[in-house]
Amino acid sequence: MTVIRKNFGSDNVGPAHPQVVQAMLEANRGAVASYGGDPWTARVGTLIDEIFQTETTVFPVATGTAANALALSALVRPFGAIVCDEVAHIMNDEAGAPEFFTGGAKLLTLPSPDGRMDPEVLQATLARRRISGVHQSPVEAISLTQATEWGTCYPVSRIAALSAVARENRLHVHMDGARFANAIDFLGATPAAVTWQAGVDVLSLGATKNGAMAAEAVVFFNRDLAREFAQRRKRGGHLWSKQRFLSAQLTGYLEGGLWLQNGARANAAALRLSQGLAALPGVAVVQPTEANEVFAALPEPLVVRLEAAGYGFYRWARLPGDGGIVVRLVCAFDTTEADVDALLGKIRRDE
Amino acid sequence: MTVIRKNFGSDNVGPAHPQVVQAMLEANRGAVASYGGDPWTARVGTLIDEIFQTETTVFPVATGTAANALALSALVRPFGAIVCDEVAHIMNDEAGAPEFFTGGAKLLTLPSPDGRMDPEVLQATLARRRISGVHQSPVEAISLTQATEWGTCYPVSRIAALSAVARENRLHVHMDGARFANAIDFLGATPAAVTWQAGVDVLSLGATKNGAMAAEAVVFFNRDLAREFAQRRKRGGHLWSKQRFLSAQLTGYLEGGLWLQNGARANAAALRLSQGLAALPGVAVVQPTEANEVFAALPEPLVVRLEAAGYGFYRWARLPGDGGIVVRLVCAFDTTEADVDALLGKIRRDE
Amino acid sequence: MTVIRKNFGSDNVGPAHPQVVQAMLEANRGAVASYGGDPWTARVGTLIDEIFQTETTVFPVATGTAANALALSALVRPFGAIVCDEVAHIMNDEAGAPEFFTGGAKLLTLPSPDGRMDPEVLQATLARRRISGVHQSPVEAISLTQATEWGTCYPVSRIAALSAVARENRLHVHMDGARFANAIDFLGATPAAVTWQAGVDVLSLGATKNGAMAAEAVVFFNRDLAREFAQRRKRGGHLWSKQRFLSAQLTGYLEGGLWLQNGARANAAALRLSQGLAALPGVAVVQPTEANEVFAALPEPLVVRLEAAGYGFYRWARLPGDGGIVVRLVCAFDTTEADVDALLGKIRRDE
Amino acid sequence: MTVIRKNFGSDNVGPAHPQVVQAMLEANRGAVASYGGDPWTARVGTLIDEIFQTETTVFPVATGTAANALALSALVRPFGAIVCDEVAHIMNDEAGAPEFFTGGAKLLTLPSPDGRMDPEVLQATLARRRISGVHQSPVEAISLTQATEWGTCYPVSRIAALSAVARENRLHVHMDGARFANAIDFLGATPAAVTWQAGVDVLSLGATKNGAMAAEAVVFFNRDLAREFAQRRKRGGHLWSKQRFLSAQLTGYLEGGLWLQNGARANAAALRLSQGLAALPGVAVVQPTEANEVFAALPEPLVVRLEAAGYGFYRWARLPGDGGIVVRLVCAFDTTEADVDALLGKIRRDE
C-alpha cells in the first residue's frame, strides 16, 4: 500500500528519522552528567570537526530561532547592526528574536530578488552608511541564508565575495543553515568550502527540518567569538539539563552521513516536482529549484482546488493582474516520488 | 543483578521514563501541523485542565529556566520587581534569565532559612518599600518555589497567606514547580488546592527532573496574563516547530498519573535516605526532608571518601568550626531502595 | 557691523534664544520641589494645552532622541514593529535608541523619496505582512517626521490619511516634531489640526533646534498611552532632579509664541536661500523647501571651494555621473538675510 | 533682611550657583560644533585631568542616574552582576536604570549599616558565589557610593581594601560620586587618592546637587573601559546636540575650585546642624555626619510639628517602640548658618 502524503507546507510538519530516534533511545540509559557533560555532546563536537575538517566550537540548541539569535548575539554589540537579505528568516519570521538576544541590534536588508545578497550592493550600502560618529548603528555582521528562503543556493564564489566585503569592513559573517544539508547536496562542495574556507565565522546548522525532532547546532569556526556563548545560551533558557537528548539527535543525524542522504532525498523530490510543474501549461516555476523548496505560479482556481483536496502548502504572493498565485511547495526527506507524482497528477487533472 | 546507581547529584542526571519515551515514539508518525497545531499539544491542555480542575492556558517549553523566565515576563513590567526567597532558582541559578526575559526587572529576596518565604516578612518588606513616585522599582509579583530549593514544601495555608499579601498589594503570584510533583505527593493536597485555589496565577510545571527528556509546562490559571505569552515564547526561540515531540513528553508524563507516581517514588527514596542518615552518628539532617532532596551535614573526611568512591552529589555549604559539610543528595523517580541502602551502607562502613 | 555666520551645518550649532535664557534665569531662585513638582513644569502643561487646544499629558526631556525613543516605547511592545519613512531620524540617526527603549522592537521603512510616507504604500505593506501567527513582529505604530528629513512637510490631509490607515490596522501614530515649529509655519494650520485632529497620538515637540539649550516635550494627546511614561523616563535617566531648568526653557520657548516666530525666521531664511540657489546656473534645488532645510545639487569643485572658505554644511549624497553633490544647508532662527546673501554671493562668485 | 530657607529635603531642591550660570551665559554665543566638538567640552577634559592628576576620558551627561547606569554598562556584561551596598542609589532609587542600561545585569547587595561595604564581607560573599559554570551571574564589578547614602564617607584605606578584593576577583570598581565634593572636603584627601590611586576605574562625578542645573561627568581612569561609552550614551538619548550648555556647567563648577568650596559650605552647615541636634534632649544623631546629610531620630510629635511649620525633609525610617522617627536633613551649598539656626531654634522651642 502506498501512503500518499499531501503535506507540502513545510519541512517541519514531518516526523523524525528512525536513525535519530534510535540514537535518542540509546542515550536513554543510566545517569550521565547534565548540562552537556555527557558523551553524546562530546561526540557531536567530534563529528562536526570531522565534517568541517577543522576545529570548531559547537553548541546544540533546540530551535533554529535560538540558534540564529544566539549566534548573532555573539557577533554584534547591542548598538550594532546586521545586514541580511530582505526575505531572511531572521528578519521576517523570528518575531524579533535577533533584536531580543542581541540587546537591540538593528537588522538592515538588501534587495535580494532570488534570496541572495549581492556583494556589490553590500559594498555600496556599507560605503553609503560610513558617514559619521555615534549616530548610526555600525554594521558589525552580515547574515547569509543557505539555502535561501527562495529555495536557491549561494555558490561558494558568492559567499567568498560577500565575506571579502565583510572582512574589508570588519564585519563578522553568519550563515543561517536551517537547510544547510540541502545546499551542500545541490552545490556538491564540501561543508568546509561552503563555510569557513569561504569566510563564514559561525553557522546555524539545521537538523530539525531534515530529520531531527528539535535540534540545531551553532558551529563557531571563529572560535574566539564563542567566548560568551555558553552564558548567553543559559540566560536564554536554551541549556538543556538532560542535554544528551539534544546531542543524541545530532549524532543520529550526522553519523554515517544521514544528514546528507536526507538532504539529497528532499532535493530530489523537489526537483522532480519542479520539473513536473514546469512542464505543465499555465504553471510557471518562478525561482530556480536548488534545494527542497519549489516556488510556482498557479492560477488561483487551481490553488483553491488543491487546498480543497487537502494539499498543504503556503500561498506566498499574489502576482499582479491574472498572473496567479505564487505557492511554496516544500519537500522533505520523507517525501516520495509517489507523493510528488500524486500532486502532479492532481494538478494535471484539475487544470 | 542489581545495578547500583551512585548518582545523587541531581534529578537531571537520569534518563527519561519509558512511558514518556513511548508517547514520543507514538507521536513520530506522519505529517501534523507544526508550531503546536498538533493533537498532542491539544491533549496537554485537556490533561492539565483535568488535573487542576479548572480552565487553564498552557504553553509547553523545553527547560525550567525558559518556563520561569517567560512566565515572569508575563507578570511584571521591565521596570518592575519580583520578590522571591533568597535561595530561589530564578535568583541564583538561571544566569539572569528572569532579568533578560522581563527586560530588566529586579529580583528582591526575602530571608528564607528553610527555603520558604514568610507572609509577615513579605508584608513588612512591601510596606517599607511603598514610599515614593517613580524612583523605586514597583514590586509587581512574588515567586514561590514548590518544593523549595531546601527540599521543603509550602503548606497550602502558607501559599494562601502569601497570596493574600500579594493580592492586597496588587502583585501577581508565580510558582516555580520544577519539583511540583514531589510537593503534591508530600502535601497530599490536590493540585488545584496548592495553586489557583490558594491564589497562584501561573505555575511552571516541571517534568524534566521527574521523567521527561526536556519538557515543562507554563500553566496560566489567570488566563488574562497569558495574552502576550505566545509571542514572547517565539521571540525567545522557545516555540518548537515540531511541537508534538515536546507535548508528547507531557502527555506521557501526565497520562494515568505517571507524574505523581514518579514524584512519590523519588520522595520515598529521599525519605528512606534521610531517615537512614539521621540514625547515623556524626551525621545531621539539616532541613526537613519533604520532597526528593536531602540536606545533611557530614564530616569532611567522610565527604571526601564518598566522592572518591564515585558517589555524585553537591557540597552545598561549609558549616563553621568543625560542623562539617552540608551536602545535597537528590533522589529521582528511578532511585531504588538498593541505591539508597548502598549509600547508607557505604557511609556506615566509612565513618 | 554685520557678523556673517557661515554655519549652515545644522540648527543645533547655534545658541539659545535670549528669551529662553531669561526664563531659565528667572527660574534660578530659591528652593522648589524637585523632579517636576515645580511651577515651571506645571506652566509647560498649561501652555501646551492652550497651544494644542486640548487636554494633554506632557513630559519634558532634554534631547530629541530621548523624546522619540521614550515616546515609541509607550506605543509598541518589545516584540512589535514600527513603520517609518526610510530617511527617518529614528531609523538612521539615533544609534538604535528606539530599539533600546522599546526593548527590541523592529523598525520597518517605507520608500519615501521626499521624506513623506504614502498612505497607499503603507496600506499595501501592512496587508502584505498580515499573514500568520507569532512569527512576524506585529506592526503596532507608525512614526511620521514633521517637517521631514528632506525639508518637506506633511499636509494635514496626508497625516489624516496615514492615521486612517493606522487606525484601521490598530496602530498608534507618533510624530517626530524636532522641527514642528517650521512645519506649522509652512502649513499655516493650527497645531491641533496637524496633530490630534489628524489622528496623532503622541508628538515629540522639539525646542532645542529652534531656540532652547536642551529641551523637548513629549506630548500625549492619547493620554492613556502615557501610563508608564514617568517610570520609563526615570529608568532612562531622563528625569531631571532640578526639572525647573528644563521646563523653564520650554516656557521661554512657548510663551508669547516665540517658537512660531523662530520657526518663521528660519523658514524665511531657508526660502531666500532656496530661491537664490535655484536662480543660479549649475545649481539645482532637489527637494521642495518647505521648512528650514535646503537640499541642493552643486558641482563638486564649488562644494570644495565653499568648504575651504569655511562654510559649514553636510554633503548628503553624490549624484550619479557628473550630477554633482547634494548638500544640506540648514537655516536657524538666528540666520539673517545677510548670512544667506553672503553665501549666495560667494557661490555666484565662485561658479 | 535674612531669608530663612526651610527646605532640608534634598540638595536638589535648590538653585544653580551664579558661577555656573555665568559660564552658561558665556557659552551662549555664536555657532560652535555640536555633539561635544565645542571648546567647553574640551575644557572639561582638561580640568578633570588637572584635578585628578592623571589622564582621563570624560563624558558629560545631565543626570546622576544616567551617569551611574551608563558607567555600569561599561563594566559588566548583560549576564553579569554588580555588588553594591544595600542602601545604594543604583539599587533603590534609579527605577531599574542599571538593569536597563546593562541589558539585564543583576545587582547584589552587601549589608552596610552605615552605608559602607566591608572588604571582608565582600571577599566572603564572592568566595561563596564562586561555585559553578554558567548558572550564576558572574560578579564583574562593585559600586561604592562616596559620600554614602547614610552621609558617611569611605576613607581611602577602605576604598583600597575593597579595590584589592575586586582586583583579586577580576572585578571593575565604580564609584557613585553624586556627593563626591562633600567626601573630598571631609576626607581632606586629594581626588586622585580617593579614586584611581585607590583602585577606582570609573567615577560618576556629581555637580547637580552641588551647584549645577543638570550636569554630571562620567570619568574613566581606566580608559580602556570607555571604548563603547560614546555609542551607549547616544543610544541612551544622553548626547546633547548643544553640548556646550552641559559642559559649561561643568567648567563653571570646576574652575577655581567652586566645587570644593560648595562642598565645604554644605558640609559645614550639616555639621553645625548635626552638633546642634546632638546637644538637644530627646534627639539622637544616628549616623556620623561626614558629608552634607544629617540623620537624626526625633520624637514623632516633633516631626509632625516641623512638617506643619513648613520644614522640608524626609522621614527615613521608624524606629521600633517609642524610638521615634529617623529623618534625613540635607544641607546644600546655599544653606546658611541662619537657616540651620532657625531650624534648631524651632526644634528647641517645640520640644
Automatic annotation (TrEMBL), chains A, B, C, D:
<dbReference type="InterPro" id="IPR026273">
    <property type="entry name" value="Low_specificity_L-TA_bact"/>
</dbReference>
<comment type="subunit">
    <text>Homotetramer.</text>
</comment>
<feature type="domain" description="Aromatic amino acid beta-eliminating lyase/threonine aldolase">
    <location>
        <begin position="8"/>
        <end position="296"/>
    </location>
</feature>
<dbReference type="GO" id="GO:0006567">
    <property type="term" value="P:L-threonine catabolic process"/>
</dbReference>
<keyword id="KW-0663">Pyridoxal phosphate</keyword>
<dbReference type="InterPro" id="IPR001597">
    <property type="entry name" value="ArAA_b-elim_lyase/Thr_aldolase"/>
</dbReference>
<dbReference type="InterPro" id="IPR015424">
    <property type="entry name" value="PyrdxlP-dep_Trfase"/>
</dbReference>
<protein>
    <recommendedName>
        <fullName>L-threonine aldolase</fullName>
        <ecNumber>4.1.2.48</ecNumber>
    </recommendedName>
</protein>
<dbReference type="InterPro" id="IPR015421">
    <property type="entry name" value="PyrdxlP-dep_Trfase_major"/>
</dbReference>
<comment type="similarity">
    <text>Belongs to the threonine aldolase family.</text>
</comment>
<dbReference type="GO" id="GO:0008732">
    <property type="term" value="F:L-allo-threonine aldolase activity"/>
</dbReference>
<dbReference type="InterPro" id="IPR015422">
    <property type="entry name" value="PyrdxlP-dep_Trfase_small"/>
</dbReference>
<comment type="function">
    <text>Catalyzes the cleavage of L-allo-threonine and L-threonine to glycine and acetaldehyde.</text>
</comment>
<dbReference type="Pfam" id="PF01212">
    <property type="entry name" value="Beta_elim_lyase"/>
</dbReference>
<keyword id="KW-0456">Lyase</keyword>
